[in-house]
Amino acid sequence: MLEILGKTNFDFMGKRKIAFLFSGIMVLLGLIAVVQIARGAANLGIDFSGGTAVQLKFDQAIRIDEARNALESNGVGNAELQEFGQDNKLLVRVKASTTIEERTAERVMTIFTKEFPNNHFVVDSTTEIGPTIGKKLQEDALIAVVISFAGIILYIAARFELRFGVAAALATFHDVLAVLGAFYVLDKEITVLVVTALLTLAGYSLTDTVVVFDRIRENLRLRRRDTEEATINNAVNQVLSRTIVTSLTVVLVLIPLTIAGGEVLHDFSLALLWGVIFGTYSSVFVASPLLLLWPGAPGRLLKRS
Amino acid sequence: MKKVGGRFALLALVVVLSVVFFLPSYKPLYQAMPDWARKVIPDKGITLGLDLQGGIHMVMEVDEDRAVEIAVDRSVVSLQDLLVDKKIPAESVKRTGANHISIQFANGEIKAQIQKLVDEYPTFFEVDAAGSANSVVWELRESEVKRIKDSAINQALETIRNRIDQFGVAEPLVQRQGLKQIVVQLPGVKEPKRAKDLIKETALLEFKMLDEDNQMKMDFPPRVPKEKEAEVLKQFEGKVPEGDQILFERVVEKETGREFRIPFLVKKRVMLTGDVLSDARVSIGQFNDPYVSIEFDGKGGREFERITGENVKKRMAVVLDNTIYSAPVIQERISGGRAQITGTFTTQEASDLAIVLRAGALPAPLKIIQDLTVGPSLGQDSIDKGVQSTLIAGALVVVFMIVYYRLSGVIADFALVLNLVCLLGALSALNATLTLPGIAGIVLTIGMGVDSNVLIFERIREELRAGKAVRLAVDGGYAKALLTIIDAHVTTLITGVALFLFGTGPIKGFAVTLCLGIAINLFTAFVGTKVVFDLLNHRRKVETLSI
């Protein structure tokens, strides 16, 4: 029997102050990100903000500062540039202020044809999003977020006793906010795909929490003589290896997806990857200790007959 | 001893069905199959999303207000003709605002005569009849405004469909979305720019007379670069005589391909429009230069004959979407209902022009509000990368499971393969669209799918540690992990469904693969792997389990 960890006996609950501090900071960052998004001050992708994106694939490498100069000297000054190294790909994004009537995509292509006559390119993709569509996508994303969270909370409420339900829901919010906060701090774009990743994450990160909570419930019934803290600690230790292994299998698929999945999927996979890691951490260091903040009747923690 | 036969047969059936449904999705294999085989299996499988096969996804809005203005403008022209016919000396007839016609006249005595004309325009009514003695104002009825707006979008849909049909795209989608939006999807288009131009073009063809007398006085520059149009318009803004406008002729320098514009003074009055055309096709002239020959219908032909007859030796402009293509001098009365549109065209431009003329004009300009174009190279690139990362991810998980769980790991890997086969089969059976995020969804279900087995195996290990016999340990492990696994799946499914309901395009593709993958996983984990364990225990009394 190969085991990552043998029988462990870490004092997870004893570390809860440090964990709460760290998680508190991450959640705070996430909340700031939410406020900034609501204010329209965050780095929203053009699918939300409206605008134009053109991705070009050049024959030879192109220097990003030269590309920027070329665009600026031809009147496209507000572009964001991003290169994808090995393929000589360049992504040009021009946000909100432009309308489709200005044909920004065509202008960008014309500029590169003119300024780099010896470096041919093919157009990988162009995306032009008018403000009405951006608004619609924002609304849809918001509805999807609300429905997902409402659904998860309702399901938890139906399955768990209140104290567990609240802890699980808080841990889920924690995971999503932590990733959002990290994206905000690193100034990564919040695109429709990133929101999709965050929602998927909300659904998935509950898995680990459910596994841990199941065991806590079992143990609270079996060992009534121990303190609650000891029982919970014990339960977390017992399921620690499977908590790690289940996350590990998902991490194993997300790493190649992040590295080799191409530029479109990169941030999406990255958000999921971080999310799974945060989710594993939170089921041990956040969800379980949260139970201790709210003492309840042992043995009745899960509604389950 | 539990019966395994039934469950085994179920598994086999599911696998066979999945493969049968999947076959049409893999084109090379499907094509290589004999005819009789192709007849018995379904003919449609997974379609690739636009992000994978390349193509255009556009959402457009018809400018309805403009459609109303255009309709009012038409009434203005016909009213002008009517006044001339009836010899009523009105000074001017103009559209004011969006839906009013204002008629000015010097002589107050003809007011009653003009007021009576409204009977011939039943979609208009007179406002403020007692008002000014020298003007009459008509307003378009609200019901007619509504009708024009409604028919504008239907007409636009029809026109776009016609154009795309003639352009030739496999499986295009042209659809109304909501009240006033039109969605156009053109998968696999090789020349996206050309296709877009073809759709967007209003293609309003008009024949207008040049105002040659006043042209002399204008002192226009001979020709200007394409970008300088607005400057010229501004410069001559105040000098344009009443009833005239400045339009530009499009000229392309053959050697350099540069576009120039020649300003002309043109009478606003429209002599004839493109809706009297019955055909348009490309012809090649004597200097190998392509032009478009057009054919009028009966009524249009007679009109054209009359107009040319009345304007011999004058210049008539052929105007398409407010750009002059040519302005020939009418040499003689032209009968027979044929005419030519010449200009500096490439063959392709000429053939696209013929297409839009045949398909008819759009009732109003279109506003593109979303335009996603993926070139074919990126599509293939995405497929390659998607497949590559799926394979690496799959290999990593397969190896990990075998290293960590030994023989049981092999069983879990078997479930993984089963999961993929069923997922592809289900996607094919539903004719689902596979997008790049959809591929990510498949990869994700590989990682999440084995979780079920991990949870079961860890439970079995625990039971074994507690000293239970192998078969009891296996049964116990499955039973105890069941609820946990269902809990875990349901929460993921909830978000999957929310994404499906509110996601668009690629996101929907992701939601579909995720939801299906997770649902199928429940089946493969609890039926698929359990059968194998039962089979192992069935044969002989197993003392140890490789887990």
Strand content of chain A: 5-15%
Q: Level of helix content of chain A?
A: 55-70%
Report the CATH C-level class of the largest domain in chain B: Mainly Alpha
Number of helices of chain B: 16
Give a verbal description of the structure.
The complex is a heterodimer of chains A (305) and B (547). Chain A has 305 residues and is of the alpha+beta class. Chain A has 2 domains: 13-43 and 133-304, Multidrug efflux transporter AcrB transmembrane fold; 51-129, Alpha-Beta Plaits (2-Layer Sandwich). Chain A is 64% helix and 10% strand. Chain A contains 10 helices and 4 strands, in the order ααβαββαβαααααα. Chain A has helices at residues 16-39, 46-49, 64-73, 104-115, 131-159, 162-185, 192-222, 228-238, 240-260, 263-292, and strands at 51-58, 79-84, 89-95, 121-129. In chain A, strands 2-3-1-4 form a 4-stranded antiparallel sheet. In chain A, α1 (16-39) crosses α6 and α9 runs antiparallel to α10 (263-292). The longest helix of chain A has 31 residues, at 192-222. Residues 297-305 of chain A have low confidence and may be disordered. By secondary structure, chain B is of the alpha+beta class. Chain B folds into 3 domains: 2-53 and 375-539, Up-down Bundle (Multidrug efflux transporter AcrB transmembrane fold), CATH 1.20.1640; 65-141, Gyrase A, domain 2 (2-Layer Sandwich), CATH 3.30.1360; 202-368, Gyrase A, domain 2 (2-Layer Sandwich). Chain B is 53% helix and 21% strand. Chain B has 16 helices and 19 strands. In chain B, the strands form 5 sheets. In chain B, strands 9-12-11-16-15 form a 5-stranded mixed β-barrel. Chain B has a 4-stranded antiparallel sheet with strand order 7-8-2-18. In chain B, strands 3-4-6-5 form a 4-stranded antiparallel sheet. In chain B, β11 (244-252) and β12 form a beta hairpin. In chain B, α13 packs across α16. The longest helix of chain B has 54 residues, at 376-429. The radius of gyration of chain B is 35 Å and the shape is elongated. The mean pLDDT of chain B is 88. The interface between A and B is large, with 71 and 69 residues. β4 (121-129) of chain A pairs antiparallel with β18 of chain B, so a sheet runs across the interface.
